[in-house]
Design a protein that fits this description.
The structure holds three protein chains of three kinds. By secondary structure, chain A is mainly α. Chain A is about 65% helix and about 0% strand. Chain A has helices spanning about 25-30, 35-60, 70-110, 115-140, 150-155, 160-185, 200-230, 245-280, 285-300, 315-345, 350-375, 375-385, 385-415, 425-450, 465-495; strands spanning about 525, 550. In chain A, strands 1-2 form a two-stranded antiparallel ribbon. Chain A is globular. Chain B has a five-stranded mixed sheet, with no helix packed on it. Chain B has a five-stranded mixed sheet with strand order 4-10-9-6-7. The two termini of chain B are about 40 Å apart. In chain C, helix 2 packs antiparallel against helix 6 (about 145-180) and helix 4 (about 65-90) runs antiparallel to helix 5. The chains are: A mainly alpha, B alpha+beta, C mainly alpha. Chains in contact: A-B, A-C.
């Protein structure tokens, strides 16, 4: 975590990594948003590795139609763990709590987030929730799927309650982080940073935070009700006692559908930064991209019913939710078109983060279009709860979000660590990840078309070939991710010093040294231009001057 | 064209007009998706090449969108999506509007089987027989957790919820056997909760109904054992029933379709099953006989190998009688007492 | 802006001015209150759904509650909100001791509220008016009754937890105010504690008609 503080040119020795101290204790008690962000990044990466391991177990089990390496009960637990870990421990906190924490104050010209103590508390709540959930997983494990549908989840004999409580606790971490970011964005902007100059990354995180603050309590309460039901039998969702199991689905998706946008909006936010930096071009349609993030955050609250098209809800309700869902598709399309248009007359440098942008664009277009196709009600009746849905949301969640995460990791790695990773190997890693991902999930679209339901432990033999293809792809993907990890870790020790702005980016965060000093800026900066402007400099000149120090 | 697209997209057979219409929309959606995606990707690709960085520190002009750009960015996808919706919504709405006079079947999901009951008639487990070209309405419920009734070949799916009824309908027009899956995760044997939809030519279905009626009628005429389905010429089966009862077969193998220590006899004959060693077999006469003589040889997946051998305990004619008995147990209602025979008029609806 | 010595003590290092810091604290509190409201919204939504499904059972169970206790509790909470508001007024004219006294009075009213709640709960326990499978009452024992009691205990229980948290916050802030921790210029914690108590009160204002009256 702490690179050698060699005093080479371009490596800022007076940085947040070794100030105020380097010991573990100084990290665990830090209030510095950068350190908290780094700790979150480490934690979510561990969760990602764990969730990925379970994903590989799933793919391994599905290699043959019958039992392959485990029994049905183990399989049910494994896919539940995969979902719970990936969603609650990785996807939701990954970009906002990790990169958001690190970058948001720097981008706004602030010294820290508004509530540094809450920020650290959020990290420990995350750890506590993770500990409770993992304890439950080791001692019995839930077998309900991450959706915890009642009445299965209230009657199963597996240990659902700790897993529910773990997710409930992590929800508070999410709320606190979101609250912190909203307040920071409103009150901590440096002079000259009007709402029209806020970097698009911050806009995306801001929209995400709104969802986190408004939707998470609903999920928390719903999960708590399931836990009460499971432990004490109060009957809220129990049909035998007059309860309505579908009501849980409404509560659950009221959070969990917006939660999908908690996962994708930050990735979109990252991509907006990356595409500008590597096309060296002002963003096409700043307002359109910023407002479409808010639009997704808003409309996202009114689309949950599209998970219930086959549950017996009324046709009209289904239709309304279908149309509302399509608006999310429109907002996403606005972004896709604007990013593509940003490339026009740019100066495109095909570095690793840009490679992930290309992958992201591909996955988002297909993931998004299949999402709208799923909202086309009659098609959903065939696809609902099949591998088509699995492939669709993995295109968004793994395809788009993980590409965004990896793009952010490579793009801001020099800023966070002060070191460059090896560009060639970084590109190799990105190619492997993108290809492996396609090999894994394109067969799953076809499996869904062919009618294979999700959460199947065994399957009829005609699905065999495509499952083998998917597992083969997963192994390529896993190999690519391991390579990425190795390349990144190697650079910590052997990477060359990055300098303050290795990409020649106009983003504000590149105006601080790498790694940044504890207080981010030596003086409160004053912003005199927007965050994505590349037309000011002289040709061949140095990177943009950015915020000018206060006179 | 339909066939080509269907195969390209790995779609299952189309056993109803509804399935063909859904697929038509499917093709349209896929083709427009591909065109739109190709448009974006080719544009991006052109930009990658045309505007690649030629020297470090290049300056780029500021390009801002005009209103027309954003209007197009919003309008084109919105129009396309609404077009999809305009086709899809009526299809979806139709699914909730069964035609008058549809034949009703009550469906109950239960861990981990499907029970089908014809109003006033017999019921069956995991095998739904319907006539071709006649609308069938399913009224679904569940006895425990949420299940979801899914027939890929018909492109229909409906959750079966405990404590309430949901409905869906279809008109299958292609005789054949199709899989019924449970699409909502329901526990340990979720993936084994597979039933069979048998679409019979109308004449055959009527024959089957007749056969059932006559069989049940003879029961009512005073057959020796009440509650037994006695098909014409089923003396051997009757003998088999007694043998099975005497030798304790029925202690582990139920005849009402429920899963006990061993697989139920009902609907066993002719069923395709996966064995513990991963192979699949069809439960034909040979398999049934072998299983009585050497039970450990081919244990069906999900069951323990606890059955003793009946080698030497059963004479060959007795074995044949038991096999014949199992063959006769197509539907579990047979064991449930005399019923009035299937009545295929739809129940009046509110 | 040159911060004066009275305020610099409270200014965190990462804020430019106390004004901004207080703005941040208030905004943060309002957002937090929004999450609290949404927490209760789930239960209210659940109540609405089951009230729709089991109207007569819910009405009967609701009528069996002692409305006068609910009414008294409403008055108690509204009064306590008033004393909290008075306490806030005292600190804004620099009277920390007055704030302490008024906040302690509010805590006392909180205890009165909980006392009445205890009387009610013990009655329900004796009568077997309990949630779900614990329901043993024979009067008003329609199919919806156990659900009513499940929601009753969830809503009032969660609200009770909030009352206890609010009382703790008021006690701590009141005690600190009495020791002179806040001044006319700097009293954001007093304001936020008051806001929280008002929220607790406001939720009760919704709970009371929902459960006791309609």
């Amino acid at each position: 975590m702490n690179p050698s503080p060699a005093s080479e040119a371009g490596y800022a020795t007076r940085n947040y990594l070794n100030l105020p101290a380097t010991g573990l204790r100084s990290w665990l008690r830090t209030l510095d948003h950068k350190r908290i962000g780094v700790m979150f990044l480490v934690a979510v990466s561990v969760a990602f590795a764990l969730g990925g391991f379970f994903a590989l177990l799933i793919r391994l089990e599905l290699l043959t139609p019958g039992p392959t390496v485990m029994d049905a009960m183990t399989y049910n637990r494994v896919f539940t763990l995969h979902g719970v870990i990936m969603i609650f421990l990785f996807m939701i906190p990954a970009i906002p709590s990790g990169f958001g924490n690190f970058l948001l104050p720097i981008m706004l010209g602030a010294k820290d987030v508004a509530f540094p103590r809450l920020n650290l508390l959020s990290f420990y709540i995350y750890l506590a929730g993770a500990a409770v959930a993992i304890w439950g997983m080791i001692h019995g494990g839930a077998d309900t799927g991450w959706t915890f549908y009642t009445p299965y989840s209230t009657t199963t004999t597996t240990r659902v309650v700790p897993v529910l409580l773990g997710a409930f606790i992590i929800g508070f971490s999410s709320i606190l982080t979101g609250l912190n970011f909203i307040v920071t964005t409103h009150t901590m902007r440096a002079p000259g940073m009007g709402w029209g100059r806020i970097p698009l990354f911050v806009w995306g995180i801001y929209a995400t935070s709104i969802i986190q603050v408004l939707a998470t309590p609903v999920l928390g309460m719903a999960l708590l009700l399931v836990a009460v039901e499971n432990a004490f039998g109060w009957g809220i969702f129990d049909p035998a006692r007059g309860g309505d199991p579908v009501l849980f689905q409404h509560f659950f998706w009221f959070y969990s559908h917006p939660a999908v946008y908690i996962m994708i909006l930050p990735a979109m936010a990252v991509i907006s930064e990356v595409v500008c930096a590597f096309a060296r071009k002002n963003i096409f349609g700043y307002k359109a991209i910023a407002y479409s993030s808010l639009g997704i955050a808003f409309v996202g609250f009114f689309t949950w019913g599209h998970h219930l098209f086959t549950s017996g809800q009324s046709t009209l309700t289904g239709g309304i939710f279908g149309v509302l869902t399509m608006f999310v598709g429109v907002f996403t399309a606005i972004k896709v078109f604007n990013w593509t248009a940003t490339l026009y007359r740019g100066s495109i440098s095909f570095k690793t983060p840009f490679a992930y942008f290309v992958g992201f664009l591909f996955f988002l277009v297909f993931g998004g279009m299949t999402g709208v196709a799923l909202a086309t009600l009659s098609l959903d009746v065939h696809w609902h709860d099949t591998y088509f849905v699995v492939a669709h949301f993995h295109f968004i969640m793994v395809g788009a979000t993980v590409m965004g995460f990896l793009a952010a990791l490579h793009y801001w790695w020099p800023k966070i660590t002060g070191r460059m990773y090896h560009e060639g190997w970084g590109l190799v890693g990105s190619v492997l990840v993108v290809l492996g991902f396609n090999f894994t999930f394109i067969p799953q679209f076809l499996l869904g078309n062919e009618g294979m339901p999700r959460r199947y432990f065994s399957y009829p033999e005609r699905y065999w070939a495509l499952n083998v293809a998917s597992t083969a792809g997963a192994s390529v993907l896993a190999f690519g991710l391991v390579l990425v990890l190795v390349v990144i870790l190697v650079s910590l020790r052997w990477g060359r010093a990055a300098g303050p702005n290795p990409w020649g980016s106009a983003g504000f965060e590149w105006n601080t040294p790498s790694p940044p000093p504890p207080e981010n800026y030596h003086e409160t900066p004053v912003f005199t231009r927007g965050p994505h402007e590349y037309h000011h400099e002289e040709p061949g000149g140095s990177p943009p001057a950015g915020p000018e120090p206060k006179a | 064209m339909n066939e080509l697209m269907r195969r390209l997209l790995f779609l299952p057979e189309q056993a109803s007009e509804h399935a063909r219409q859904i697929d038509a929309l499917h093709y349209f959606v896929i083709v427009t998706t591909m065109i739109a995606a190709a448009g974006v990707f080719l544009t991006a690709l052109w930009f990658f090449v045309r505007y690649r960085r030629r020297k470090e520190g290049e300056r780029t002009p500021e390009v801002q969108p005009r209103t027309i750009h954003e209007v197009l960015f919003v309008g084109v996808p919105l129009a396309l999506f609404l077009l999809w919706f305009a086709i899809g919504f009526p299809q979806y709405a139709r699914l909730s509007m069964p035609p008058e006079g549809a034949m009703d079947v009550y469906v109950q999901g239960k861990k981990w089987m499907w029970k089908f009951a014809y109003p006033g008639g017999p019921s069956s487990v995991d095998r739904l027989r319907v006539p071709a070209n006649r609308p069938v309405r399913l009224l679904l419920t569940s006895r425990d957790v949420i299940h979801s009734f899914y027939v890929p070949a018909l492109r229909i799916k409906q959750d079966a919820l405990p404590g309430r009824y949901t409905q869906i309908w279809f008109t299958a027009d292609k005789p054949g056997r199709y899989e019924i899956f449970c699409a909502e995760f329901c526990g340990l044997s979720h993936s084994s909760m597979i039933g069979e939809l048998v679409v019979m030519p109308e004449a055959d279905f009527d024959d089957w109904v007749d056969r059932q009626r006559r069989g049940l009628a003879s029961v009512q005429d005073g057959a020796p054992v009440p509650g037994e389905e006695v098909l014409p010429g089923a003396n051997l089966a009757e003998q088999g029933r007694r043998v099975a009862a005497e030798h304790g077969c029925l202690k582990c193998h139920t005849v009402d379709g429920t899963r006990h220590i061993g697989p139920t006899f009902t609907g066993l004959y002719g069923r395709q099953g996966r064995l513990a060693n991963g192979k699949t077999v069809v439960a034909d006469e040979a398999y049934l006989t072998r299983s009585m003589m050497d039970p450990a040889a081919d244990v069906v997946q999900g069951f323990q190998n606890v059955m003793p051998t009946f080698q030497g305990k059963l004479s060959p004619p007795e074995v044949a009688a038991v096999v014949e008995y199992i063959k006769s147990l197509e539907t579990p209602a047979a064991a449930k007492g005399p019923s009035e025979g299937p009545v295929y008029e739809s129940v009046p609806r509110k | 802006m040159r911060p004066d010595s009275a305020t610099t003590a409270h200014l965190a290092h990462h804020f430019e001015s106390l004004e901004k810091q207080q703005h941040a604290a208030r905004l943060g509190m309002w957002l937090f209150l929004a999450t609290e409201v949404l927490l209760f919204t789930v239960l209210f939504a659940g109540y609405a759904v089951y009230r729709y499904l089991f109207g007569p059972d819910f009405a009967a169970a609701s009528r069996s509650l002692a409305t006068w206790i609910g009414l008294v509790n409403t008055v108690v909470l509204v009064t306590s909100s008033f004393t909290v508001a008075m306490g806030f007024h005292r600190i804004s004219i620099g009277d920390g001791k007055g704030t302490r006294n008024l906040f302690f009075l509010s805590v006392l009213l909180g205890f009165v509220f909980l006392g009445f709640k205890y009387v009610e709960y013990s009655h329900h326990f004796l009568a077997g008016e309990l949630p779900g499978r614990y329901f043993t009452s024979t009067v008003n024992a329609g199919p919806g009754a156990p659900l009513f009691w499940a929601l009753y205990f969830l809503i009032t229980g969660l609200h009770g937890v909030h009352v206890v948290i609010g009382m703790t916050v008021l006690a701590v802030v009141g005690w600190k105010a009495g020791r002179g921790a806040y001044s006319r210029e700097y009293h954001v914690p007093v304001e936020l504690a008051g806001l929280y108590w008002h929220l607790v009160d406001l939720i009760w204002i919704f709970v009371f008609p929902l459960i006791y009256l309609i």
